[in-house]
């Protein structure tokens, strides 16, 4: 496995960069393509520049869990293809990183867990094959929260037993606050995916995965643009699951244009026979989402802002005190967003409250029934939460293990848990494994457990979809909903609905810091969300908003 200590060896075999006037810092994918087409730079030059930046800044950020030892070799091959007149597409020669729960046959896929530390899968994920076919150079695997945050709720963002703690490039210091001073960064990275390397220009873009918030959240935290696609639009084959009911991969980039380019390549041109969900949405002609990017898309658009709970605290059924809401500086930011949207010709419906979020009956409210993982909700203590994630993980992890064949390093979820316990001295259980425990308790052969899952899954989809997002969109004839950062992500994830986020502002990073410690502000993006398969419309709106604001700020690295 190639780690940071061998960057020097990789750079030594790279010839000098001939394009001294071209820098990868904040360069977009189209700009890199244009430079290669004009002969001002090669794919090898791009990879070399990124490797140098990794050598300079990786120790402070810890964005990569593995670096591809063959990255320069792949770049050379792609440069030869270009010289011979073959260009595979808009990603030809572009260095891309992918989350380390996504299969690659030339690098380990660890999910951050020590039991898989040296595991090299027998097959590429479909999305990885699509990237390779499209000419991308997979330069690295990114850090992640162990098991995509289905290890234990409360584990530090971007901590794993394999990779340790990763840091947000907008403030790379460790958190000094009591109870949080375990080594984690003072500025959260968002969720289980990481946007740190893309934000710091260590590669052109990266691929994250999301079950509830893990594309939109990290993108917001790292001032990135990103697409959390409709579940099923990108194949889940070869991605270590939380639950395929809600899992999806998606692009995390510095611009909406780059995200649109990547989305088309990741999706591919035809459904994946290994993932029936890929039949849910039809890809655009030629898999090209960039044709939807329209700087004037906000004019005449109708956009709603859900306020109750998502912005303003709201008392949910069965509760005495209000919950939810966002701090005053985030509210002010959202008010500024609304003003910009109106100035660009959009009609802003504010508030546009989600019917299932303000429903007064417990059974009809989408927000009161959280995922069974907080207590951690073993059987007998899970009547008021949804079992979708804990049941779905047991089911889909079992299927994933079977897909690996007889050489699978772990034969079952039970074996993984037992291995972690037996090897606790290595650091396998720093934050325990309660999410794995409550999943393994599920009996896939039990009709009672299966029926409970089916009931909860139907409720989640109904309340988030038909009676949630779809209801508010129809009620006010809206093109999209707008949220601050990832505020709407968990709600929308239950129905598998898409979102596109745009970099926007900086807000306060919490409180309770020791005297003399001044936290740096936290990035916060603006998210456009809609119904299933509405990515073309969302990309158009997000692009127009990005063009109108242009708020991304490059982190200052040391």
Give structural attributes.
about 550 residues, alpha/beta, Amidase signature (AS) enzymes, eleven-stranded mixed beta sheet, two-stranded antiparallel ribbon, 16 helices, about 30% helix, globular
What is the fold's blueprint, element by element?
Blueprint: H1 7-12, H2 29-37, H3 43-61, E1 64-67, H4 71-83, E2 95-99, H5 126-133, E3 137-142, E4 159-160, E5 164-165, H6 196-199, E6 205-210, H7 216-221, E7 225-228, E8 248-253, H8 256-267, E9 302-304, H9 328-343, E10 347-349, H10 355-358, H11 388-403, H12 413-422, H13 434-440, H14 447-475, E11 480-484, H15 489-493, E12 499-507, E13 522-529, H16 535-549
Parallel strand pairs: 2-3, 2-6, 9-10, 9-11
Antiparallel strand pairs: 1-3, 4-5, 6-8, 7-8, 7-12, 11-13, 12-13
Helix pairs in contact: 3-4, 11-13
N→C terminal distance: 27 Å
At CATH's second level, what is the architecture of one domain?
A: Alpha-Beta Complex
CATH topology of one domain: Amidase signature (AS) enzymes
Task: Give the overall silhouette.
Answer: globular
Instruction: Count the beta strands.
Output: 13
Low-confidence stretches: 1-6, 11-18
User: How would you classify the helix and strand content by structural class?
Assistant: alpha/beta
What's the pLDDT, averaged over the residues?
95
Give the strand order, joined by hyphens, for the main sheet: 1-3-2-6-8-7-12-13-11-9-10
